[in-house]
Design goal:
The protein is α+β, with helices and mostly antiparallel strands. It contains 31 helices and 27 strands. The strands form 8 sheets. Strands 3-9-10-8-7-6 form a 6-stranded mixed sheet. The chain starts with about 25 loop residues before the first strand and ends with a strand.
């Protein structure tokens, strides 16, 4: 999967997104853009409250060519894998609607149409009627309110409405039972949404005054006066998370230092069995203790009682066992927040500095402790940079480079810095890059570098694995990391030093020295020097992503003499017209439309219409992007029919590289996967002579058609490398999802909504009476190639239905499985990103059925 995002996703371990609607890998950076810490006497601008929590989309895709990220967009607070927080107004295109318009998220299970969930449903109510409706709505329904604007915003969130809900929150909080059985979470979400929407739509909503602050504080005080918020359960964690974030949304963090300390000091490894409680602990770390340093009241409160700083330092020192685990974001965030506190000046800084130094001195730069060191050091420099000699963090990029990228080779105008490449491997990379220059110039037929641009030398940094890339690349090179590599440059800046940052894969994908995306990223550098005048913002001022990404993909495969097997699969699918691909932007295109279809469009145009490409590039090289866009936009649909015919030939073998192409089928039964070689030899007299498989779990096989059993359920990368009698090799990876054994089920989905399915998980013990429907939904991230839905076990007769757009039923479905009994299965190929809908229809009473989704 190859996805480019420019948003800063800078985290430790596995990580994910930051501002706006964040797509992300495993841990998510989430704060709004940082600025100078609060100074005495200053009037800081308080950051807008956090928006809704959203599902983040993991990606190991390539980062696009971009200018370096500003230092205040780096080193921000982290969140757990798979989540992100909206910290800016929705742009619309990237905000998925969880369920169909005017359908309630708490869908009735009786088979009747679900109740409405629109802004008007909230705006038209007041008093007890409003409270009842909010409490009775599903949390996903309330979450949609974070994106209301204009007159809707004013009607839903005017202060009188907020005061009504705040009073209801106080009443419920006084009797909090440790779970959401009374709908208290929906009330809290409504209040959070109100503060968020008002901050972004102040003129429409109107002002909020001290009476609202007091009302919310009364509710929070009642909540924290009880005992059940200490329950170490997921039921409590689900509610506690949003209550803690509300203290930040209302900007009254100074009132709850004691609560924050209790949360930090109360955490122990027993919490790790309850993911919602872990997230609640992290709510303190990524929201108030990270962001409230902007608030003079908070800084004054910490100065009066700095014991919260001690709690952060103790947490960072005492929970290093979390580093290298899925919950390492907790320990990293503690160091993050501690270092940021050192920038608050005065007695706060004096108290924090020795604690920051203790953490840094006790934390090795490399190994599993690397993320804690990096984030603590980075934020010490960012917010208390004058003390860098004291901390030992002056020239942090240089210190990290020396420790992590010790191997260097100067290769003409390129400097290769690597973590673990041997001298022979460095030479292999250098040779590949040297050869790529000539291939590129022959392909684009340039007349030399675009005049008056900078960056004629480049550094290529290669980390040994993704984990180290995520940890170290951003503080050294100011790149975003929700990708498999990124080329960072600004040809208009004389001080900019271009860099392509990458890492090595654990499985062979046919790149030199296994440096993933090496030739793709280097093509971006060449394209910027020889084809594209101006900085990145200028380059993408028109829809030209088909070229920017497509040419990098095409050169990467064509230069290496390798078949783009994903593009061949897409060619056979005929998913897009050429005129559609010509309109690609980073906002309207998922990974499939961006990369394999970009490859196909560029290859077609270079092979069939090179004069058009030459004319387009002639405009791009002078900075006339509108003129370049006009070259292909004015074609309209005139090439679509020929492109469609060309795709047929391409998929049939005309676009296969000469020599071997690794292809295979897979069939999964429980923990076992049967792999069937389908590799081909093209335009060669050589024969395939050997096959080597890696299974993604540390094992391998040299059989042609192996059957492999996995010890644990999950999704693995299977890679096949074939070699022919001429000694030429080709490799192709694919993901495979398995269960624990024949007939075994996937783990239970963890979403608190019982109708929410997820990636490679199941919902057991489903039951309905005859004539009724059991509704589910699932969110598919961009780049999903296959969704498989199965049902198994239990008794009775239930049919399975799927719909891409609305609640599925026997009268509204796009795919179905209607076998007798309860064993059903359906597969949807190449679905687009978004929410999809699944149901079980009770032909007779059924019970004990398990519904599973794999993608």
């Amino acid at each position: 999967m190859r996805l480019r995002q420019s948003l800063p996703l800078l985290v430790a371990g596995a990580l994910a997104g930051s501002a706006f609607m964040l797509p992300t890998p495993a841990l998510a950076s989430s704060a709004s853009p940082a600025a100078a810490p609060v100074k005495a006497g200053a009037s800081p601008s308080i950051p807008a409250p956090f928006g809704a929590e959203i599902a983040s989309q993991s990606s190991e895709a390539m980062g696009r060519t971009a200018a370096p990220l500003a230092s205040d967009r780096l080193g921000q607070a982290l969140q757990p894998a798979g989540t992100a927080v909206q910290s800016g107004p929705s742009t619309g295109a990237k905000q998925p609607a969880p369920l169909p318009v005017k359908q309630a998220f708490a869908a009735a299970k009786s088979g009747t149409e679900a109740a409405s969930c629109t802004p008007a449903d909230f705006a038209s109510r007041s008093g007890a009627d409003l409270v009842s409706f909010v409490r009775g709505s599903a949390t996903d329904c309330v979450n949609t309110l974070f994106n209301v604007t204009g007159t809707d915003a004013g009607k839903v969130f005017k202060q009188s409405q907020m005061l009504t809900v705040a009073a209801a929150f106080q009443a419920q909080a006084a009797h909090y039972s440790g779970d959401n059985s009374t709908g208290i979470l929906q009330l809290v979400l409504f209040l959070r949404a109100g503060f968020y929407v008002q901050s972004n739509n102040a003129s429409a909503v109107g002002p909020y005054d001290a009476s609202l602050t007091s009302a919310v504080k009364a509710g929070l005080d009642a909540f924290f006066a009880g005992a059940r918020w200490h329950d170490v359960t997921d039921a409590n964690g689900l509610v506690l998370y949003d209550v803690l974030v509300l203290t930040d949304s209302a900007n009254i963090q100074a009132q709850y230092l004691n609560v924050y300390k209790q949360v930090l000091n109360g955490y122990g490894n027993g919490y790790n069995a309850f993911p919602k409680m872990v997230k609640a602990v992290n709510a303190v770390l990524f929201a108030p203790l990270w962001r409230a340093n902007w608030n003079p009241d908070y800084v004054s409160a910490v100065a009066a009682d700095p014991s919260v700083i001690t709690a952060l330092a103790n947490f960072a020192q005492n929970h290093k066992d979390l580093l290298g685990t899925a919950n390492q974001f907790l320990d990293v965030n503690a160091g993050n927040d501690l270092a940021r506190t050192a920038g608050d000046g005065g007695s706060v800084a004096a108290f924090a500095r020795p604690l920051v130094k203790q953490v840094l001195d006790a934390t090795p730069v490399t190994g599993t402790t690397g993320p804690l060191y990096v984030y603590t050091a980075y934020n010490a420099n960012q917010y208390d940079g004058a003390q860098c000699s004291y901390y030992g963090t002056c020239d942090l990029p240089g210190k990290l480079t020396a420790a992590v990228l010790p191997h260097t080779l100067v290769c003409d105008n390129r400097t290769i810095r690597a973590e673990d490449l041997s001298a022979e491997e460095l030479a292999t990379v250098c040779a590949s890059l040297r050869g790529e220059d000539g291939f590129f110039h022959t392909m684009v037929k340039d007349n030399g570098p675009v005049p008056d641009q900078y960056g004629k030398t480049i550094t290529l940094a290669v980390f040994k694995n993704q984990a180290d890339y995520l940890t170290y690349s951003w503080p050294i090179y100011n790149n975003s990391t929700n990708n498999g590599g990124q080329t960072v440059m600004d040809v208009t800046d004389p001080d900019n030093k271009p860099v392509s940052v990458m890492y090595r894969k654990s499985w062979n994908d046919g790149f030199p020295a296994n440096v993933w995306n090496l030739n793709h990223e280097y093509t971006h550098y060449l394209d910027n020097i020889y084809d594209m005048k101006g900085n990145f913002g200028t380059e993408i001022s028109v829809p030209d992503i088909w070229w920017i990404e497509g040419v990098a993909e095409y050169e990467s495969y064509a230069y290496r003499g390798t078949t783009d097997t994903q593009a061949m699969t897409e060619a056979a699918a005929h998913r897009y017209k050429l005129s559609t691909v010509f309109q690609n932007t980073y906002d309207n295109s998922d990974t499939v439309r961006t990369y394999p279809w970009g490859y196909l469009a560029v290859r077609y145009m270079l092979e069939k219409h090179p004069a058009d490409v030459s004319s387009m590039l002639g405009h791009f090289r002078t900075g006339d992007y509108q003129g370049g866009y006009a070259v292909y936009n004015n074609l309209g649909t005139s090439y679509d029919a020929d492109f469609d015919a060309w795709l047929n030939a391409c998929a049939a073998g005309a676009c296969y590289a000469d020599g071997p192409t690794a292809l295979f089928d897979q069939a999964v039964n429980g923990a076992a996967v049967t792999l069937t070689d389908k590799s081909v030899e093209t335009n060669s007299q050589a024969k395939l002579t050997s096959w080597h498989w890696t299974f993604g779990d540390g094992t391998s096989s040299d059989q042609r058609n192996p059957v492999h059993s996995y010890a644990n359920p999950g999704t693995y990368t299977v890679a096949l490398t074939v070699t022919d009698s001429a000694g030429k090799s080709a490799s192709t990876p694919s993901s495979v999802t398995v269960t624990t054994g024949a007939g075994a089920t996937l783990p239970t989905c963890t979403d608190p909504r019982t109708d929410a399915l997820g990636q490679n998980c199941s919902r057991p013990n489903q039951a309905r009476t005859a004539g009724n429907l059991d509704y589910f939904y699932v969110y598919l991230p961009a780049g999903t190639s296959t969704l498989k839905v199965t049902t198994s076990g239990g008794t009775g007769n239930a049919s399975l239905y799927y719909n891409a757009d609305t609640w599925a039923s026997p009268s509204a479905f796009t795919a179905s499985s209607t076998n007798p009994g309860t064993a059903q299965s359906l597969t949807v190929t190449n679905p687009t990103a978004g929410y999809r809908y699944i149901s079980l229809y009770a032909n007779t009473d059924f019970s004990g059925v398990t519904v599973s989704t794999q993608f």
